[in-house]
Amino acid sequence: MPALVVKPRAVADAYALRARHRQGGTTAFFPAEVLVGLYRTLGDVGQVLSVASVLNAVLILAAIFLLLVAVTGLRRRRYAVLRALGAPRAYVLLVVWLGMAGLVAAGCLAGLGLGAAATLAVSELFEAQTGLRLSFALGRPELAQVGLILLLGSCAALIPAALSYRRSITAGLRG
Which of 65, 64, 53 has the alpha carbon at shortest distance from 145? Predict the structure, then answer.
């Protein structure tokens, strides 16, 4: 007989079978041993993906900061005109900060929507190829990460806003 499936009556019997068939002459396959190795590997992959997720968030924050500085530079003349028309510095600070925080919020919402759509599309393709269904749900960890990015991005928006606050009217109007 080329294959035989044996179901032990007790856990001790399973260990006895394992010891008996590991001595040579037979090839035995014990699924629990394979699963332990597989779960260990998947746990390691999970840790790598967690680190990659954190690094991705850091890169996103750096990109957000560069975007905020670039947009503030492009709108520098507008803010100087506001000041020349008599707007207080605090008003210009608030306008710049709210505009930048709005950009960060729009980016977070767009990222959530596009990420969810892409995940669902890849899940359907994976299911069509393998027959395995991958579930997707936005949970607290994902929303917390987006909230953290929104909070840190809004705080980073204060830097270009403060630079606009401190800039003289003539420097802003010159370009």
Answer: 53
